[in-house]
Amino acid sequence: MPTLFHNVWNAHSVRTLPSGQTQLFVGLHLIHEVTSPQAFDMIRQHGWRVAFPERTFATVDHIVPTSVQKRPFIDLTAEEMTSVLERNCHEYGIQLYAPGASGGEHQGIVHVIGPEMGLTQPGMTIACGDSHTSTHGALGAIAFGIGTSQVRDVLASQSLALDPLKVRRINVDGHLRPGVFAKDVILTIIRRLGVQGGVGFAYEYGGSTVDRMTIDERMTMCNMSIEGGARVGYINPDDTTFRYIEGRPFAPQGPAFTRAVEWWRQIASTPDAEYDDVVHIDAGSIEPTVTWGINPGQSVGIHEAIATNADEEALTFMGFKAGARVEGTRIDVAFIGSCTNGRLSDLEEAAKIVKGRHVAPHVKALVVPGSQAVSRAAVARGLDQVFTNAGFEWRGAGCSMCLAMNPDKLEGNQICASSSNRNFKGRQGSPTGRTLLMSPAMVAAAAVSGEVVDVRAMLDEVHA
Amino acid sequence: MPAITSIAGRGLPLRGDDLDTDRIMPARFLRAVTFEGLENHVFEDDKKDNPNHPFNDAKYKGAAILVVNSNFGCGSSREHAPQGLARYGIQAIVGESFSEIFLGNSAVLGIPCFTAEKTAIEHLQAAIEKSPDLVIEADVANGVVSAGTLGIEATVPSGLRDAFVTDQWNPTAMLLADFDKVRAIAKGLPYVSGF
Ligand code: SF4
User: Fold this and answer.
1) What is the atom index within ligand 1 of the atom nearest the CA of B76?
2) Is residue A98 part of a domain?
3) Cα distance from A337 to chain B (closest Cα, Å)?
4) Which of A103, A144, A410, B9 is most buried (CB neighbours < 10 A)?
5) What is the pLDDT of residues A183-193, one digit of tens each?
6) Does ligand 1 have an atom closer than 6 angstroms to the CB of A109?
7) Is residue A215 part of a domain?
8) Whether residues A119 and A40 fall in one domain
């Protein structure tokens, strides 16, 4: 029996191209300021139209400043890239959410606002010029990260030339222990299967642990599929999904919603679906996890030592010795945000740790909400106060220090406890800067302790 | 757009697994609305960090064929990475494996990515290091990369191979060729028609 992946693939297959690849219809196209300007130039040069402008939505996230978001931005390049996107969207009739434009209050990281607005729905194909497009799979969509020439293709034809993927089912069963989060689960999966393990595969996550997860948690999981080499990650739509979507601005309304739920149920993988591979993960064995290296597969449980045969290049760059622990590592910066962990529930988990404590004096700590809507919801709950009282900077929405295209950067070889998704060399803006990936709660714990610690010790205090 | 059946040129061996696109093209060079000038920033931080980096080495100047190890181009989908390599003069890449997004981004720029066995790649890298002037021939149609007396089996995924040799590697025109079918598929999708 077919999987959701196959059902969606078949429903969107336009034809087999002369090259043998499949022409796949793209149901939702998301664009941002960094990977789209050249694509618009290309379609302009060829005199092509945008085929379905109503199926493309734009926002600014990558370069947008998060300190002051008043236009014009002080950063002239950010201002230029934003106004080029504005011009392109205006010329081709595409909805844009950007500061200073109408609808600006919906601006945010592209993978945060898609689900938030109800644009992301089960059974859709979604493409975006960003590798973390896999995030949208949390709602049962099949979502592909693409390059700029493919952004051009989607603008011009609302379709892509693709080869099908194999499907690997990853079953996570059992109960996560307190202080262990979706971030720890996905870091464990990547560590287990390797950063190349998913090449050629779509990852379908399931099992009792995933069934119990909220959509926010599922997004954290699907988001990092690409770090395991899988271009696509998804979770079959269920009642949790439908409840999440209902009532959102772009969700189907009334009787249409009921019909939609019926279709969404039909396209899901059946219990007897056949997979190219099946993997089992025991949720109860997962510890709070931190990376020590220069790719997201190089991680350890918080009380575990780095393997004695660990990669030399990574050890040298990070300044760790084989056999050492990451626990107790002094940090310089703490970053809570990104499309992996910049949603309301992430800020809530971090705030629980931060409340009544203070950021260590040597640590620069910032919270960057994933979208303006996340920010508003957090402010309504007083979370901004919790963070600023503790000495965190509270910022506007954007990607910020996840990739450091704006002024939020590491300096020299600073060490950053980060809730983002990539610990590549230079990722956070300094060629020698060092990133330790972990859950937002673990980042919060590191920020107030000044070093990497086991968040569970602090949870006990919270509960006591 | 010409067919690409084979590429000949000098080689550039770049050792290391999991070289991500942040390494190939650091994010600060994405702060622009065109791809112009990216050739000047390929592996910029790695080059600064290591004076012996192959991209610093005069003996590989003008190379057309990059030879890498496994999972090359993982991470960010930024086309700026293959754009930089293309503008630098790289016309084909041979490696043990590639990230899918990187492989696809390279293909639309007319750069075939060949995959070969680990040991074959190591031999090829060693051969180039020994004789940097060796002319490498990367044959897309037949799935062979040869360098002097060394010949290794190296293939481009079949769909892309056919696209290269039949001159259909830049897909936009193909995707637009039967646009009525695109419209028909759209119409049949419940979420497009509003359920
Ligand atoms: S938050 Fe980071 S990973 Fe996510 S879209 Fe922005 S830059 Fe990419």
Assistant:
1) 8
2) yes
3) 18
4) A144
5) 999 999 999 99
6) yes
7) yes
8) yes
Query: Which residues pair with residue A31 across a beta bridge?
Result: A58
Give residue-wise pLDDT tens across range B27-75.
999 999 999 999 999 999 999 999 999 999 999 999 999 999 999 999 9
Burial environment of residue B47 by CB neighbours within 10 A (0 to 12, 13 to 18, 19 or more): middle
Residues A90 and A129 in one domain: yes
Contacts of B188 in chain A (CB under 8 A): 11
Say yes or no: ipTM exceeds 0.85.
Answer: yes
B30–A62 C-beta distance less than 8 A:
yes
Cβ-defined contact of A199 to B181 (cutoff 8 Å): no
SS3 A97: strand
| A399 Cβ below 6 A of ligand 1 | yes
Nearest CA among A4, A453, A9, A439 for reference residue A224: A439
Residues of B in contact with A426 (CB under 8 A): 22-23, 26, 45
Which residue type sits at A24?
L
Which stretch of A151-155, A460-464, B88-92 has the lowest confidence by average pLDDT?
A: A460-464
Q: Which of B45, B75, B191 is the closest to A121 by Cβ?
A: B191
Kindly state whether residue A413 falls inside one of the protein's structural domains: yes
Q: Which CATH class is domain B6-168?
A: alpha beta
Residue A462 pLDDT > 70: no
Which helix (H) or strand (E) is A463 found in, with range?
Answer: helix A455-463
Q: Give residue for tokens 């597969």.
A: A297
- Domain co-membership, A202 together with A108: no
> What's A404's domain CATH number?
3.30.499.10
- Domain end marker among A162, A195, A210: A162
Q: What is the CA(B195)–ligand 1 centre distance, in A?
A: 32
Q: Which residue has the tokens 């464990």?
A: A188
Interface test with B, best of A131, A162, A430 (most B CBs within 10 A): A131
One domain for residues A324 and A453: yes
Residue among A374, A305, A302 at smallest CA distance from A336: A374
Residue A246 lies in a domain: no
The residues pairing with B6 across neighbouring beta strands, listed in sequence order, are B139
Residue A175: which domain range? 166-240+264-284
Residues A26 and A129 reside in one and the same domain:
yes
To probe the interface with B, which of A19, A81, A263 has the most B CB atoms within 10 Å?
A19
